[in-house]
Recover the amino acids of this structure.
């Protein structure tokens, strides 16, 4: 009889975990860091061949109580359909240890006017541009997706405040005043694409949404301010210098792109906004100039140059401060420091790398 009880207690562990699985099949139990040492201790009692039957039974009871007291997180239900992954062999052949790196995930949809071949070239062009400034791109995966058509053709951001009448703030200061943020719907759409990804807040995601529109504040002739009409754009980067910390961390790496021009530099340009955290400025030209006359990667021309030094408005130096960068050192991922304050143009991580308009 004693042998039967002993065998029952020794093998009930398997049954116990089956029961836990059945409880959790519609969700995932979220154990805290404080609970994990207790769980490990209870499992050690159960696995110890010298434990008494009473202590084993008590350990099972305590484990069950921990499980039942832990919140259950339901699995995310996607509206995005992840159709298949593209072959990315050959796109990451020259990644180096102890070198600044940015992780990138590409999503492509058949409804936009970009082919897989063109998107590959966009990635390689961006990789070349950033490597010249000391940063390599790591393509984690590329996925063909489908999603509801109504997600396209809408304003992605909203402005919640305006400068006072007659006020003319500096270019980057204005973004702290107007308090731009993603619309609630766009935040949910972005999250649908990236919900299952690791290191979401440190990865660049390219989403194939089309017809995205931006809004901005503009001054009337009488000195008052208004929100512009939605302006369509082929690609948007949702950078921290605009949205500050008003963009949720889990989607702050998102870029939307629906086109690829002949120069195949659209991706590199939009990633420049995200990683350098600047607008359309370049060599000896501030953001007060139009992008069409701006030299370098952050202008609208064909250049891929990321300038350095004061004359280059510290673009290379700012790039190397980006929170999206890491190095692999002895198999460990070492991330750059995150933004200290809101992530604006003048966030303290850019100390000494801030230029006047």
């Amino acid at each position: 009889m004693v042998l039967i009880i002993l065998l029952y207690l020794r093998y009930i562990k398997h049954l116990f975990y089956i029961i836990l699985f059945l409880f959790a099949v519609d969700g995932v139990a979220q154990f805290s860091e404080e609970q994990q040492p207790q769980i490990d201790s209870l499992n050690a009692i159960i696995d110890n061949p010298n434990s008494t039957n009473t202590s084993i039974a008590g350990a099972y009871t305590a484990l069950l109580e921990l499980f039942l007291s832990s919140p259950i997180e339901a699995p995310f239900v996607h509206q995005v359909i992840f159709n298949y992954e593209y072959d990315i062999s050959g796109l990451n052949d020259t990644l180096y240890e102890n070198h600044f790196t940015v992780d990138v995930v590409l999503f492509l949809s058949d409804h936009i006017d970009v082919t897989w071949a063109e998107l590959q070239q966009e990635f390689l062009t961006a990789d070349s541009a950033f490597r010249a400034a000391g940063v390599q791109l790591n393509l984690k995966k590329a996925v063909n997706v489908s999603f509801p058509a109504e997600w396209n053709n809408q304003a992605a951001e909203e402005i919640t405040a305006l400068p006072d009448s007659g006020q003319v703030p500096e270019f980057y200061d204005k973004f702290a005043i107007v308090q731009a943020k993603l619309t609630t719907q766009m935040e949910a759409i972005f999250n649908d694409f990236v919900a299952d990804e690791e290191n979401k807040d440190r990865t660049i995601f390219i989403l194939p949404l089309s017809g995205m529109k931006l809004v901005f504040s503009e001054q009337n002739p009488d000195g008052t301010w208004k929100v512009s009409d939605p302006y369509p754009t082929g690609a948007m980067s949702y950078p921290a210098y605009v949205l500050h910390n008003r963009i949720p961390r889990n989607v702050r790496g998102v870029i939307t792109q629906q086109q690829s021009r002949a120069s195949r530099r659209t991706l590199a340009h939009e990633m420049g906004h995200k990683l350098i955290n600047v607008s359309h400025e370049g060599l000896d030209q501030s953001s007060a100039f139009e992008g069409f006359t701006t030299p370098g990667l952050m202008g609208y021309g064909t250049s891929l140059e990321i300038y350095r030094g004061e004359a280059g408005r510290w673009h290379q130096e700012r790039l190397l401060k980006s929170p999206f960068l890491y190095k692999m050192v002895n198999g460990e991922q070492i991330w750059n420091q995150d933004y200290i304050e809101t992530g604006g143009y003048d966030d303290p991580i850019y100390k000494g790398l801030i230029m006047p308009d």
